[in-house]
Amino acid sequence: MQPSRQLKIYLLILLLQQTNGQNVRSICSPPPSPCDSASKYRSHDGTCNNLEHPKWGASYTIYTRLLPANYADGISAPPVAKDGSPLPLARLVSSTIHPTAPVEDKQLTLNAMQYGQILTHDMGVALNTTPPGIQTTKHLKKI
């Protein structure tokens, strides 16, 4: 089944939002308030936890990519090798590099779960905005 034109446009808009995060941050984010380097405690919203970059890791700020998105079709298809062949599955690569038997450690498992939960909660409050000049999908009909 081929994706509809509206879906392709929607996915392209999402791609543009993700790759243009840096530009959006400079336009949408208010200037950071001065940080108190003598403060004994971290801030509740993540601002000023890094004195050189006060907005890094702050709530309601946009995540940026380290590298541009890499999709086979430019929109959503998984990337392929330079010769066009499919790339190996991530699980196969991981198990090939680390071929050890699983280690059962209830404390480590609990810590990993908590860390994952903290990450997802932090990502849940990341700002999701539309860059200036990009048409939103509000005009599209729901399928």
TrEMBL record:
Q: Which InterPro entries match?
A: Haem_peroxidase_animal (IPR019791), Haem_peroxidase_sf (IPR010255), Haem_peroxidase_sf_animal (IPR037120)
Q: Can the keyword Secreted be found in this entry's annotation?
A: yes
> Which terms are listed as keywords in the entry?
Glycoprotein, Oxidoreductase, Peroxidase, Secreted, Signal
List, alphabetically, the PANTHER family matched. Answer: CHORION PEROXIDASE (PTHR11475:SF4), OXIDASE/PEROXIDASE (PTHR11475)
Q: Where in the cell is it found?
A: Secreted
- What is the annotated signal peptide range for this record? 1-21
This entry's Gene Ontology molecular function terms read: heme binding; peroxidase activity
The Gene Ontology biological process terms listed for this entry are: response to oxidative stress
Q: Which organism is it from?
A: Ceutorhynchus assimilis (cabbage seed weevil)
Tell me the protein's name: Peroxidase
Tell me where on the tree of life, at the top rank, the source sits: Eukaryota
Taken from the UniProt entry, a GO cellular component term is: extracellular region
